[in-house]
Structures are given as structure tokens and as C-alpha cells.
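sry for the spam today, last one i promise. C-alpha cells for design, 559 residues
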């Protein structure tokens, strides 16, 4: 405490000397103007700016001090100080030195000798602590003061190096830097599901007054609540990530790091940060005060913080955070497979869950058939609890298995990609009546570059020893659509999903000699310099089609 007073008095004593020297050079200068000018000259780096948010960096166990003097004019002036810790708890206090105006005036004119100045200083000066706080919450002090008072703010961190923000203002008429919170700043949980939580909160008065400049942003994490937006920023940075200073609230896409994913939909910005303690999500939803958080994990506790943000200044205020635990995941349903029946399964790539199918054998020999429609799928088959097959499938895949009557087979399917996948599944004891057609060695379509013209292309594909029907379809596409078309193609869909104008022809062919089971087709009437997507569909005895791999060919621009 003695050291604190020493550091407080030292600038005051130097300031008095400065005031006396200044008065000799310019005896007409007022004492108050001299006080302010010399304070600026001596302690410019330590003066706290009025009306501006200041970032203060603190070293462990080393106090940091800032001074301010209020503007002249009124005898009493209101002021507020808001301190926002951005990490660990800190200690901070406000000290005030009040000196009489008459003493300052006499000192400036040089009316007293040194002994008289010393006595007057002791009699006319008073130092007191008017506020102190310890913690990591955002704290605001509101006070009234005379222009002849000098204030000192002292900050101390005893845990580790950290930083804080400090905001001083004496203008109480032109609005607030920080958005206002409602009388009840709590967040209410109004709905909990297996993968969702629905939240609501009362509107900020700032939203009702300045809707175009204010928005709500929600922070979701699995660790704990945060009392300020800068505390959340610091926590994410300390986990090894680099973040922009406003935590992406400016909606600028330049800020993303490799560990971040940004999703913009329905005027909502979501940023997912992958950190060691799980995902931290930031969702900015405009001025809506009810929101359902999607894509959460079942049986997991999440912490939710809502910040109301001033888009013009990036200043924010925090609602009182809450938490909720999602419901436990229900036991996976098992679908019964029946002989000869084909079912199509859609697999959620984000959840990476197994879809289970069960079959009780009525024959000793059975055959599972899988036709991959979209994406990539992992198949795992067990018989009476023991694994008999496990692999990633592509195209059409058969598994022929032997066992006993009433053996129980469990088929588990999972998407190996983050996007959704789909697959058709059939089990049957009838080997001699396959549901799907006999397939060639390859389902690729080949094009001949030398045979391309401005209005035609020639393609070829392999056939089988079984007479089958083949239908060719074409579609114009743009260059930037190629990847999307090839990626999103449903290989299980038949020609019924295509427009009639896309049909080119249908033909039958086969060859007993597989070396000669190949056919070619020249498609004419095309536009020059244009990309086309070609598809070939193979139909077997049952009428179920198998789609060859799509082929993209561009006609020549000049001939």
C-alpha cells in the first residue's frame, strides 16, 4: 500500500514543480490549463483516453497504472469506467487525488515560498481509494467528479500475463459504446433434442433502437461459459488457433484458418473452430432472439453464450451464459431384410453412424448384393456375431455366403465421407435369378479424341455375353459444373429421372467372346466447343438399370 501511495504522489510532486516553472514563463496562463498541459507532457503514455476503448497488457505481478483528469466546465461531471478482463481474474482499483483550486492558483503564481507550498500541499491534498474489484467479470464504475480531481487506475494480474480492455467516457448523452442488456439478461433453454438445443433471450434495448447496427452472436463450446467476447477470443487463441481481433463478427471471409469452417446460409454466419477441447462454434443470426443450435452430439453437455454486438464499433455485451445436455442417443433400429426385396439406404456422412440390417437365413447358401448409388460406403457383415466380410464397396458388389438354416446375419453400413451416401441392398437365395444384370469387366465409357469433330463425338463401352439393352443419354454442362455433376450423380437412378430431350438412342448387343464384347456409337448434332456429359444405362432381365460411369467430352471449337 505504501508503494502505491509513493507512485501516486511521485507524478504529483513532479507536476507541481512543472506548474511553478511554467508559471514563470507565462504568468498569464491559468492554473487549470497549466495542470492539464503539464500532465499531458509528462505522462502522455499513461493517460487514459476519453471515449475510446483501450487495450492494456499486464505482466504477472507487475501493476500497471493509468491516469485521467476530467474536462473543465462543470463543477461536477459524470463519468463511467468499464473494465473487461480477457482471460484470468485481475485486481483493479480507482484512486482519486483531490486538490483545492485555490492552492493550485497560488502555486502557479508563486505567491508562497517552499515551506508554505509543502504545508498547503499536505492540507489541501487528499488521496483515497473509491473503488476496487477482483475477478474476471465485466465491471462498470459510475461516478461524479470535479475537474480539479486527478484519478489513477491500477491493474494487477497475479496468475499470468494477460490483457484487458478499459473504456472511459464522460459523455453520457450521445449513447453508449457497449450495447445495452435487458433487465433480465438470462438465456432460456426452451427445447432439448438428441442433436439440437433451442435457446431464447430477451431483446436488447439497443436492438430495438438501432436494429441496423446491432446483431446477436452465439458461442457454443463444451468447456465452460465466457463472460466476455474477448475472453472467448483469448481461449480459442490459446488452444493454438489464430483468430481475427473481432472473432469473425465482421462477416469477412478472409479470416479463416485451416482449423476453421465457415457456413453462410439464410443470413446466418456459422464458424466452427476445431480445437483440442472440441468444437467452438460462433453463429451470428442478426436480430433474431430465438435460435435452434443444430448438429450437436447426443449425450453431450454444451455451454451457450449470447453476445449483443455493435457492428459499427465491434463493442459487445454478454448475456448470462447457460448450459444444456443433449439427450442420449436412442438404440439404433435394425431393419429386417426379406428374400429378394431391394431396399435403398441413405447414410448420414456427418454423424458417421452405422445403419443396421438383419437377415435370418432360410437357405444354406445366400447372396448379398450391394449397388453403390452415391458417395462411399463401408460394409460389415457378421454371421451369428462373427465377421464374414468387411470392405469399402464401389459399383455393384456381390457376397456369396454359406451357412446353416436360421443363421442370423447382421449387415452394418456406414458412409466413409462427410457427405451423405446411399446404397441399394438385396439378399436372395436364388443365384440362378439375379436381380441385377450381368456386368462387364469395366463400367467406364471411353471417348476417342481423334474422332471428335465440331458437331460429333464417338464413345465406346464394354458389354457382356448376355444380350442386354443399353441406352445412351447426353447433357450440356458448363465447365464449372463438371465436378458437381460427377460428384452428385446418383448411380442407382434410371433413365426415368432424365429429361426426354437428353435421350440419344437405345440398342441391344452381346458377344460370346468377351474380347469382342465392345460397342461404339457416334453421337451427332452437337454444338461446337461445347461440353457434354454422356451416360450409358445397362438393363438386365429384371429391368433394373445399372449406370456406367459418366463421361465428359468437349466438341472441337474449330474444324
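last one done:
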Amino acid at each position: 500500500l505504501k508503494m502505491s501511495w509513493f507512485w501516486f504522489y511521485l507524478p504529483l510532486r513532479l507536476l507541481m514543480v512543472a506548474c511553478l516553472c511554467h508559471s514563470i514563463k507565462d504568468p498569464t496562463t491559468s492554473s487549470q490549463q497549466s495542470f492539464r498541459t503539464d500532465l499531458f507532457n509528462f505522462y502522455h503514455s499513461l493517460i487514459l483516453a476519453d471515449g475510446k476503448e483501450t487495450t492494456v497488457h499486464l505482466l504477472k505481478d507487475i501493476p500497471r497504472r493509468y491516469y485521467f483528469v476530467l474536462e473543465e466546465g462543470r463543477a461536477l461531471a459524470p463519468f463511467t469506467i468499464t473494465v473487461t478482463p480477457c482471460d484470468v481474474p485481475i485486481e483493479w482499483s480507482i484512486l482519486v487525488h483531490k486538490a483545492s483550486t485555490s492552492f493550485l492558483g497560488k502555486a502557479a503564481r508563486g505567491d508562497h515560498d517552499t515551506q508554505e507550498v509543502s504545508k498547503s500541499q499536505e492540507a489541501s491534498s487528499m488521496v483515497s481509494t473509491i473503488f476496487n474489484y477482483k475477478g474476471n467479470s465485466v465491471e462498470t464504475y459510475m461516478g461524479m467528479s470535479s475537474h480539479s480531481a486527478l484519478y489513477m487506475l491500477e491493474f494487477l494480474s497475479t496468475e499470468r500475463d494477460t490483457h484487458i480492455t478499459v473504456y472511459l467516457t464522460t459523455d453520457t448523452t450521445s449513447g453508449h459504446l457497449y450495447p445495452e442488456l435487458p433487465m433480465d439478461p438470462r438465456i432460456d433453454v426452451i427445447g432439448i433434442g438428441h442433436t439440437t438445443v433451442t435457446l431464447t433471450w430477451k431483446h436488447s434495448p439497443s436492438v430495438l433502437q438501432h436494429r441496423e447496427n446491432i446483431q446477436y452472436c452465439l458461442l457454443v463450446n463444451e468447456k465452460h461459459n465466457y463472460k466476455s467476447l474477448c475472453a472467448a477470443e483469448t481461449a480459442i487463441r490459446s488452444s493454438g488457433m489464430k483468430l481475427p481481433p473481432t472473432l469473425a463478427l465482421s462477416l469477412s471471409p478472409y479470416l479463416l484458418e485451416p482449423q476453421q469452417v465457415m457456413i453462410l446460409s439464410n443470413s446466418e454466419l456459422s464458424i466452427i473452430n476445431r480445437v483440442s477441447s472440441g468444437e467452438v462454434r460462433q453463429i451470428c443470426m442478426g436480430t433474431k432472439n430465438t435460435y435452434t443450435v443444430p448438429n450437436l452430439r447426443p449425450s453431450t453437455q454444451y455451454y451457450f453464450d449470447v453476445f449483443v454486438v455493435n457492428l459499427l464499433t465491434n463493442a459487445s455485451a454478454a448475456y448470462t451464459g447457460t448450459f444444456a445436455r443433449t439427450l442420449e442417443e436412442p438404440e439404433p433400429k435394425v431393419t429386417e431384410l426379406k428374400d429378394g426385396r431391394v431396399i435403398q439406404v441413405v447414410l448420414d456422412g456427418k454423424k458417421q453412424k452405422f445403419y443396421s440390417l438383419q437377415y435370418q437365413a432360410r437357405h444354406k447358401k445366400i447372396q448379398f448384393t450391394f449397388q453403390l448409388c452415391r458417395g462411399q460406403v463401408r460394409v460389415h457383415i457378421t454371421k451369428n456375431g462373427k465377421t464374414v466380410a468387411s470392405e469399402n464397396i464401389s459399383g455393384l458388389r456381390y457376397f456369396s455366403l454359406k451357412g446353416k438354416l436360421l443363421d442370423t446375419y447382421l449387415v452394418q453400413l456406414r458412409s466413409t465421407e462427410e457427405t451423405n451416401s446411399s446404397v441399394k441392398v438385396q439378399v436372395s437365395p436364388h443365384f440362378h435369378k439375379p436381380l441385377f444384370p450381368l456386368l462387364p469387366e469395366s463400367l467406364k465409357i471411353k471417348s476417342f479424341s481423334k474422332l471428335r469433330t465440331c458437331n460429333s463425338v464417338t464413345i465406346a463401352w464394354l458389354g457382356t455375353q448376355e444380350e442386354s439393352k443399353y441406352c445412351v443419354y447426353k447433357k450440356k454442362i458448363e465447365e464449372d459444373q463438371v465436378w458437381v455433376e460427377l460428384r452428385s450423380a446418383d448411380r442407382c437412378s434410371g433413365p426415368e429421372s432424365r429429361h426426354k430431350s437428353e435421350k440419344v438412342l437405345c440398342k441391344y448387343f452381346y458377344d460370346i467372346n468377351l474380347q469382342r464384347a465392345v460397342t461404339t456409337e457416334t453421337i451427332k448434332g452437337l454444338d461446337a466447343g461445347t461440353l457434354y456429359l454422356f451416360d450409358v444405362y445397362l438393363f438386365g432381365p429384371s429391368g433394373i438399370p445399372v449406370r456406367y460411369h459418366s463421361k465428359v467430352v468437349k466438341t472441337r471449337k474449330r474444324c
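The first strand starts at residue 52 and ends at 58. ok im logging off now
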